[in-house]
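sorry for the late reply, my laptop died twice this morning and i had to redo everyting from scratch. anyway the thing you sent over, i finally got around to it. pasting the sequence first so we're on the same page, its 101 residues, then the predicted structure underneath. double check i copied it right bc i was rushing
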Amino acid sequence: MAHAPTPLSKRALIDRSYLEHRAKVLDLASFLDRIDRASGEGADDFRMRAFESCCALLIDGQPNRAQRILELLSDHSTEPIARAGTKGATGAVPPSSGGAR
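ok and here's the structure:
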């Protein structure tokens, strides 16, 4: 879906928001560094696989990144589960839920 251009120029957007988003990129890099240094289970965690897929979408050069990432992380199942294994959301679709696309 095509979107109308923003009222600001690319330069104005960069001038306004670059430092904020630079900090977010550094936060992501720090998170990945901590994961790399950590020991124990979790190397194949579905959330990290989803995170890596999101990173690939960020750099693919295609439009609508936010929408596509939201779709990737969303559970598209239509049937309720019998019992929740956790008290909260996981932020990504577990492989056993059947909700992944």
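Residues 44-74 form one domain.
thats about all i looked at so far, will dig more tmrw
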